[in-house]
Amino acid sequence: MSDNDDVPFNRNFPLKPGIVEEVRPGVRRVLCNNPSPFTFTGTVSYIVGRGNVAIIDPGPDDEAHAAALLDAVRGETVSHIFVTHTHRDHSPNTARIKQATGAPVYAEGPHRASRPRFESEKHNPESGVDRDFAPDVNLAHGDVVEGDGWRLEAVATPGHTANHLAFAWPERKFNFVGDHVMGWSTSIVAPPDGSMIDYMDSLDRLAAREEDLYFSGHGPEIPDGQRFVRFLIRHRKAREASILHRLAKGETDIPTMVRAIYIGIDPRLTTAAGYSVLAHLEDLVARGVVATEGDPVITGTYRMANA
Predict the structure, then answer these.
(1) Are residues 145 and 286 in the same domain?
(2) How far apart are CA 233 and CA 186, in angstroms?
(3) DSSP 3-state of 305
(4) 3 falls in which pLDDT band (50, 70, 90)?
(5) SS3 state at 286
(6) Is the pTM above the cut of 0.85?
(7) Is the pLDDT of residue 119 over 90?
(8) Residue finishing a domain among 183, 201, 231
């Protein structure tokens, strides 16, 4: 199969909530029962190592999921808790796991937007953020944390959120990629919380790395991860081309672009699709390809810069 062949999304993920599954030696996963159009079958938490272990992404504010995670590591010591980012389906349960285990929490930092909010922005697209979260240890790109039989390297992957980290295990060629790369669907990039400019740069960063098996925040593991990332880059560039194709017909607004580009979309995802289009438009306006009056916002109208 060549690199230019399309990579299909994989929606086959039979894992049931609360069940611990060893997906590879040294990597276990537990699914939270929080399915939705945004979370697929739910948030996946990971347990790294044996005996003295790390937990990655304790999940949403969910007592049953915390109990399932703690049950999965009964008789073991949780030495570290890692959090990829501060959306409410990933970080709020951290407090429960920390209280039960005493393990320190490692993450990039508290939640923050990718850019300041514009005065003209009325609506907050990201009500699902965890503003109470603060790590014990702030990690920067390239920082390495070692445990008993495992070693995780922080990989800065902003875009879905400004503080998003992936955690690579270079010796095993594994990467815990959070919501930056998902096998079942594209990630949502919703300004001002997210940034398409950052997101594309982060995809390039992952594509240049050696890890080739990705463990995602939702859905199944992703084999041949670098090739999948290259597919995502092509997919995003094709979405940008669709936006430019529509703008070539004349000035228009985001709802019109969504109707033209996202044929047959689940109506519950229409708002998210609009913010994804806005993320692309922010990038295009910054590059001088597209123009708008005032700031690039969800309610704006857009045209080709040379029109």
Answers:
(1) no
(2) 11
(3) coil
(4) very low
(5) helix
(6) yes
(7) no
(8) 231
